[in-house]
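Researcher: Structure prediction, please.
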Amino acid sequence: MPSARYKRVLLKLSGEILAGDQRYGIDPKMLDTVAESIGGMVDLGVETAIVIGGGNLFRGIAGSAAGVERVSADHMGMLATVINALALQNILEQKGIVTRVQSAIEMKSLAEGYIRRKAIRHLEKKRVVLFAAGTGNPYFSTDTAAVLRAMEVGAEIVLKGTKVDGVYDRDPLKYPGAVRFDTLTFFEVIEKGLEIMDSTAMTLAMDNNLRLMVFDVRATANIKRALLGEHVGTVITKSKPAP
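Model: Predicted structure follows.
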């Protein structure tokens, strides 16, 4: 079997991915598709960490806009990520993949508390680690949590699974003529105002030279292709690769 390019990666999934074609909730078919992709990572021997959002159940900013006090709304959003992490853990373990859920908010009966050294030890033992509840703090998105956790556990790249096959200059679901980028620098993302991650997450990744890849997670072969070194989706780095 060919060897993977990366030893340790962090997969960032939006909650909306788990909703599938539904507008709300968890679609069992999509959950299975995502689990199959993660299984491909495990089969390659890649140490896999995951951060998942909660937008399919509750989004803090939207809740705040609807009249819920912002800090409370963000805490509700964090709890939604725990539900998604537990759902993903369940289907992964049905497939024989050993997992651990670590929550930034203490909830001993459901998940381990986040401890960096413990998380690294799980990864070294080839357990998939799901980081839930974001950073545990309001006003910080799960994108920021993904970049932060990736740096803390020494991941070499953040793979951001989305519903589209990369980063475009406009929303390709609304504008058929949108142009996809193969590569971008962090500065270009910020300068062009491309909505890949929030500015805090993007700046944090740029300052620490953390490589990002944005791709369509619904195609189960994409993660394996990316890990084997193929160019998939859009790659974002501190500087453009030499031609």
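Model: The domain at 8-237 is CATH 3.40.1160.10 (Carbamate kinase).
Researcher: Thanks, that helps.
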